[in-house]
Amino acid sequence: AGVCGVITVRVEKAGDDCYNAATPVDKDITINFADQTGFDFEITDTDKLVVTYNDSNNKFSNKASGGQSTGSISYEITVGTDVADINAETGELTIKQAGQVTVKAVKSGDTCYNAAQATYTLTVNPDSPEFSVSDVELIYGVQEYQINVQTALGGSGNYVYTIDGTNDIGATVDSNGKITFENSTGKVGSITVNVKKEADNQYKELEKNFTLTLSYHVPTSQPTVSGATKNESGWYTGVVTITAPEGYLISYSNDLIGNAWNETVTVNTDGVNSKKVYLKKGNEISDAISFES
Q1: DSSP β-bridge partners for residue 31
Q2: pLDDT tens digits, the chain, 293 residues: what are they?
Q3: How far apart are CA 107 and CA 85, in angstroms?
Q4: Cβ neighbours of residue 290 under 8 Å, at least 6 residues apart?
Q5: What are the residues whose beta carbons fall under 8 Å from the beta carbon of 30, sequence distance 6 or more?
Q6: Which of 10, 69, 148, 283 is least surrounded by Cβ atoms within 10 Å, i.e. has the fewest?
Q7: pTM recorded for the entire structure
């Protein structure tokens, strides 16, 4: 340590009737700087040195005090500059991400005391993201559906989409959350879709599921059958025409891709014919409707 100062003490002894005065003797006394005591942070309990990202608007303050010098106090981060920034004068932290940050406070010395220092380590836990998904009901005939994720609190973690469990409708989902039904011809039912937001340096991972249900369109009217009949038997004797109701198109197939839809279809095969037709209104397709001619 340095010195607080040097004191020179002179000792003199006067003479008397028999002796002369003694030669003065000078003695230097060195006074060392003292170490300061009691210098520490206000919060030292490790249980209280744990926060979650977003707490208190990502600000954290833990002032240092105590000590005997008249010196000023300064603050610095010794570990974790990626986790937080610090105000060197006040010691207030601005948290940037989850992790651990170690702060050192130094109280400078003066003419009698050495500098003092204290440290603490703050643990910043990641926050939980917040997003929502809702169950979806679609009508058979839809070509694709974009998953709608409502994000309230997130971060930079990617969304990952998967179809969990049984997939009887043959749907697929891509990395952008687009569900397609190219392989869904003639298939209806429900699937469970999993949406996962991956963790980043501020937020935890979070997963949620929703149910997507694909159902047939229910027509409000039925097709009509027309053609020449023989006597009173009711049997058709020529080409039979099946006409879609107003506002609909009709087809013998419910293929989702490359299918032809018209206002009518015809039957011109001799004998008893059992036919299944499908109605389409807009992009919505019905279940099979059976006819016998």
Answers
A1: 5
A2: 456 777 888 888 888 889 888 898 889 888 888 999 999 999 999 999 999 999 999 999 999 999 999 999 999 999 999 999 999 999 999 999 999 999 999 999 998 999 999 999 999 999 999 999 999 999 999 999 999 999 878 888 999 999 999 999 999 999 999 999 988 788 999 999 999 999 999 999 999 999 999 999 999 999 998 876 655 656 666 788 899 999 999 999 999 888 999 999 988 766 556 789 999 999 999 999 987 65
A3: 20
A4: 274, 275, 276
A5: 3, 6
A6: 10
A7: 0.78
